[in-house]
Design a protein that fits this description.
Helix content is 75%, strand content 0%. Helix 2 (44-70) packs antiparallel against helix 3 (77-97) and helix 3 (77-97) packs antiparallel against helix 4 (101-123). The chain is mainly alpha-helical and 134 residues long.
Length: 134
């Protein structure tokens, strides 16, 4: 059985780009966290700022997933996954602000894995037609 094609090449491209950027942000966050855990206290401010950049990218990921879902109502996994990642991201920020280091680091590693799988799965989407972002 052939894989079902997705309508909306623009929406797929937008989702792929935002997911790739969010995935890269998790790597930057891990680097900054490692620097902080290694004793570089000056990396706390960039780590905090980058957390908000990551939240923005994950929010944009949800928007892109909604745009894709609007023209492909049968395709629900990108939207459900993006919303789940957004919820985990808010929990991650709350854990960081509460200085719950063990949970914050564990969830950070999980977020990196989730975002990597999400970005890779968006690359596997096959588009049918070059529709607008509808």
């Amino acid at each position: 059985m052939a894989a079902r094609g997705v309508n909306g090449r623009g929406a797929v491209t937008l989702l792929r780009v935002v997911a790739a950027l969010a995935c890269l942000e998790t790597l930057v966050q891990g680097l900054l966290a490692g620097m902080l855990l290694n004793g570089d206290v000056a990396s706390i401010d960039p780590h905090g700022f980058n957390a908000y950049v990551f939240e923005l990218l994950v929010f944009l990921q949800v928007v892109a997933a909604v745009l894709l879902w609007r023209s492909n109502r049968w395709l629900t996994w990108p939207l459900m996954a993006a919303v789940g990642i957004l919820a985990a991201t808010f929990a991650q920020t709350a854990l960081g602000l509460a200085s719950s280091l063990a949970a914050h680091v564990a969830l950070g590693v999980a977020l990196c894995a989730m975002e990597t799988v999400f970005a890779l799965r968006t690359l596997a989407l096959r588009t049918d037609a070059p529709d607008a972002l509808s």
